[in-house]
């Protein structure tokens, strides 16, 4: 901002301003141009750019002034000429010298600065610094004369005016009336007129007046200089005050704007904070509701799990009860059979005893007769009485009649059984029946020395034997069956090649011992070996060397793994058809399975993968059981099962499967997938099977209605006999069951079925009765009274449909719980 700079205009411009203001109240265009140029030059470049519109308006005013001033100039010229003539007349009459000119220079005029009127800012939109005077808008830098002897200028919205003060002339006849700014002396006195004609007097007066004027001019000039400096100081003070006021105004505006912005920002922040608090409160409420719902669901899930566990425990209890009952029945039958066998054995022994007694008596009788005959002959030869003969015959009782020879007396140290030269040393409590010797559960610690060529069956199980000495079985050359299970045999205490001389041995049972290696060598004619529940760790390449006749091998519950079995361990077993490897430490199916293998049991291991070629060497495999392992869907190779051309039974229960495996064997008939996590039965998964799947067990899974459709059982219409879908999440009867023409058993108990459609099991278009013999639908949510009366019309016997008991109908949200 720049202050009022009227005093800084050039001297010629001031003269023109003063002279023009006295006559016609107009300002010349030259003065406007000079004032505008000076204002522009003194302005800052940034203000020039900011006030470019104001500058254009100033040039427009200059243009209008240039067009209007000629007319005003003519009027001003005419007035000046008239005034000059009048002034000349006064000078001639009064001898008055011009007060404003001296030697062609303008005299100094004393001015008194004051502010007449303030104007409002921002008169025109977008422009600042205009002034308003008597309803007329004056732009920044405009100069005008509102009345005689007063000159004003507009500076940055403020109006500054100066008043021209005239000197008091000492006129003899008084002042003349004049319309100009300063009046002249009147010249009406005749004496004065006459005196003016006197040249000497006029010259004296003029000289005196000139001296006075010069003195006055010097005084006025010094006074004017002082006033000029005072005016300049006041202008600078005014300019400083204006600048400060402007700065304060700007600062006030800025502070107001900042305060307004701060208030707006504060309001915005408060609103944002409030919004965030509301949002956080809403989220907290949603989280609380979600946690509450989750808690309710977890409680419901826990309750359902407890109910399911209760059902499973109840079912397990029932199964255990049935199993115990069956085992009790079997035990009872076995005991009855044993009692019958014991009776039969006793009868046979009694018969044998009688027979032997008869034989002994007959032989004794013959001997007695022979002895009597010999004694009679002696008597005849030597002479003797008949009384002594008779008494000797009566005393001749055979001592064997008092103790049968086939029983070992308890006090005998070496009792024996003699049959055609064979001798058997028996511990107390052993039983021998023709070719079978049983010494079971007698707490025997040492094997008895046996020599019996005709003995074929030897049972020394459930004892406390821990050692097998060398050559202990050499006296049993015809032995075919040996049972040494449930003892305490260890590999270190079993003599090498102790079984090798049993050339006719067919079965060897060594279960429930402490063997870490398979005894070697073994008889070549062995057909069955049982070494279950031992400590076997390694199978070497020569563990089964020479056992080309072995058919069944059981190595259950040992410590074997795929890394401890030599790939050539099973190579000698060219006739092996039955292999049990349950409850070991396998993670993969062992390598080198014999081609003749038909049944493989790998339950209770840690198998995670069925790779390509894992079971392909066993090309005759018909039964594969992999229960209780860690198999997943992606771990079963596509060709691993599909390549088996003879696999008819597959058990993958108790694994981690989520879908029914694809690429199943073509000839598969029996598929068990219970106790998995199966959610879906893919469409056409059984379509490639020929003649078709017969038994499908999917109990204890996660199957719901979205997991089965009409194509899920495609290909089993004329082959499937049993379908088990119990303990799943079915909400209605799956579609497509009427297409199963050979079905006999369907189990869908313990699901969530609430409605039975009219055509779920019976098709009106098929006049034949259904082949169903058992349909289980108990423990669902079925309202029996709402079942259509034709729903089971095709079933031959309604007693085969089990509907009781049913669970209470749950709340609507309970269906969503697992």
Q: Give the C-alpha Rg.
A: 69 Å
Mean pLDDT: 76
Instruction: Please report which band the strand proportion falls in: under 5%, 5-15%, 15-25%, 25-35%, 35-45% or over 45%.
Output: 5-15%
The shape, in one word, is elongated
Structural class: alpha/beta
Distance between the termini: 83 Å
Helix count, DSSP H or I runs of 4 or more residues: 8
Report the sheet with the most strands, covering strand number, pairing sense and barrel closure.
17 strands, mixed
pLDDT below 50 for ≥5 consecutive residues: which ranges? 1-47, 93-126, 188-197, 385-424
Describe the structure.
By secondary structure, the protein is of the alpha/beta class. Helices cover 34% and strands 11% of the residues. It has eight helices and 28 strands. The chain has helices at residues 11-23, 29-42, 45-50, 52-94, 190-196, 199-382, 386-395, 638-642; strands spanning 101-102, 105-106, 111-114, 131-133, 136-138, 143-147, 150-155, 158-164, 417-419, 422-424, 431-433, 436-438, 450-451, 457-459, 481-483, 507-509, 528-530, 552-554, 578-580, 599-601, 623-625, 649-651, 670-672, 695-697, 722-724, 745-747, 774-776, 801-802. The strands form five sheets. It has a 17-stranded mixed sheet, with no helix packed on it. It has a four-stranded antiparallel sheet with strand order 3-8-7-6, covered by helices on one side. A three-stranded antiparallel sheet has the order 9-10-13, with no helix packed on it. Strand 6 and strand 7 form a beta hairpin. Helix 2 packs across helix 4 (52-94). The longest helix is centred in the middle third of the chain and has 184 residues, at 199-382. It is elongated. 23% of the residues are buried.
């Amino acid at each position: 901002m720049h202050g009022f700079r009227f005093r800084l205009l050039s001297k010629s411009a001031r003269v023109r301003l003063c002279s023009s203001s006295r006559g016609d109240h107009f300002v010349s265009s030259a003065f406007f141009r000079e004032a505008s140029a000076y204002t522009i030059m003194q302005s800052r470049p940034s203000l020039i750019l900011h006030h470019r519109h104001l500058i254009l308006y100033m040039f427009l005013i200059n243009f209008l002034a240039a067009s209007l001033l000629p007319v005003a100039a003519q009027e001003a010229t005419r007035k000046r000429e008239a005034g000059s003539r009048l002034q000349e007349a006064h000078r001639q009459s009064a001898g008055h010298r011009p007060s404003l000119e001296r030697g062609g220079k303008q005299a100094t005029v004393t001015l008194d600065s004051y502010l007449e009127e303030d104007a409002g800012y921002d008169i025109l939109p977008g422009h600042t610094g205009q002034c308003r005077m008597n309803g007329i808008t004056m732009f920044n830098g405009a100069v005008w004369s509102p009345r005689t002897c007063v000159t004003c200028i507009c500076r940055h919205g403020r109006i500054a005016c100066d008043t021209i003060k005239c000197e008091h002339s000492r006129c003899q006849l008084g002042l003349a009336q004049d319309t100009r700014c300063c009046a002249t002396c009147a010249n009406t006195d005749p004496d004065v007129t006459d005196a003016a004609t006197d040249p000497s007097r006029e010259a004296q007066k003029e000289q005196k007046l000139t001296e006075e004027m010069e003195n006055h001019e010097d005084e006025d000039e010094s006074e004017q200089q002082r006033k000029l400096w005072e005016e300049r100081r006041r202008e600078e003070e005014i300019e400083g005050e204006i600048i400060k006021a402007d700065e304060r105004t700007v600062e006030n505006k800025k502070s107001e704007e900042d305060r307004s912005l701060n208030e707006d920002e504060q309001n915005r922040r408060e609103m944002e904070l409030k919004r965030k608090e509301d949002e956080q409160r809403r989220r907290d409420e949603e989280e609380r509701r979600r946690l509450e719902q989750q808690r309710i669901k977890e409680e419901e899930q826990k309750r359902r799990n407890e109910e399911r566990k209760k059902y499973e425990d109840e079912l397990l209890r029932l199964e255990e009860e049935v199993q115990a009952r069956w085992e009790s029945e079997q035990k009872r039958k076995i005991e009855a059979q044993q009692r019958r066998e014991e009776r039969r054995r006793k009868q046979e022994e009694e018969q044998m005893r009688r027979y032997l007694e008869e034989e002994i008596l007959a032989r004794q009788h013959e001997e007695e007769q022979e002895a009597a005959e010999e004694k009679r002959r002696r008597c005849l030869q030597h002479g003797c009485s008949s009384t002594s003969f008779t008494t000797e015959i009566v005393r001749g009782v055979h001592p064997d009649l008092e103790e049968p020879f086939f029983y070992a007396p308890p006090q005998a140290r070496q009792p024996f059984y003699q049959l055609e030269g064979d001798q058997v040393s028996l511990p107390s409590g052993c039983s021998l029946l023709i070719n079978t010797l049983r010494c079971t559960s007698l707490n025997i610690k040492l094997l008895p020395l046996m020599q019996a060529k005709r003995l074929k069956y030897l049972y020394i199980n459930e004892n406390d034997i821990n050692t097998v000495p060398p050559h202990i079985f050499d006296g049993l050359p015809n032995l075919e069956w040996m049972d040494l299970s449930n003892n305490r045999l260890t590999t270190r205490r079993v003599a090498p090649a102790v079984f090798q001389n049993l050339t006719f041995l067919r079965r060897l049972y060594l279960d429930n011992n402490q063997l870490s290696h398979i005894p070697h060598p073994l008889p070549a004619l062995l057909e069955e070996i049982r070494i279950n529940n031992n400590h076997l760790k390694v199978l070497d390449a020569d563990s089964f060397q020479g056992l080309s006749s072995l058919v069944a091998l059981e190595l259950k519950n040992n410590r074997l793994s795929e890394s401890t079995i030599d790939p050539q361990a099973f190579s000698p077993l060219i006739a092996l058809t039955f292999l049990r490897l349950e409850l070991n430490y396998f993670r993969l199916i062992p390598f080198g399975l014999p081609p003749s293998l038909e049944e493989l049991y790998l339950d209770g291991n840690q198998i995670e993968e069925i790779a390509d070629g894992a079971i392909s060497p066993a090309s005759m495999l018909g039964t594969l059981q992999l229960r209780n392992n860690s198999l997943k869907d992606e771990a079963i190779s596509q060709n691993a099962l599909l390549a088996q051309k003879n696999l008819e039974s597959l058990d993958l229960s108790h694994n981690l499967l989520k879908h029914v495996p694809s690429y199943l064997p073509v000839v598969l008939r029996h598929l068990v997938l219970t106790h998995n996590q199966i959610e879906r039965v893919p469409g056409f998964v059984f379509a490639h099977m020929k003649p078709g799947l017969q038994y499908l067990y999917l109990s204890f899974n996660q199957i719901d209605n979205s997991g089965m459709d009409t194509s899920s059982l495609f290909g089993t219409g004329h082959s499937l006999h049993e379908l088990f879908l119990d303990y799943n999440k079915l909400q209605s009867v799956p579609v497509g069951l009427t297409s199963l023409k050979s079905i006999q058993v369907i189990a869908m108990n313990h699901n969530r079925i609430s409605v039975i459609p009219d055509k779920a099991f019976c098709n009106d278009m098929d006049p034949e009765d259904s082949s169903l013999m058992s349909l289980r639908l108990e423990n669902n949510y079925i309202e029996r009274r709402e079942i259509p009366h034709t729903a089971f019309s095709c079933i031959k016997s309604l007693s085969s449909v089990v509907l009781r008991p049913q669970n209470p109908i749950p709340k609507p949200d309970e269906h969503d719980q697992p």
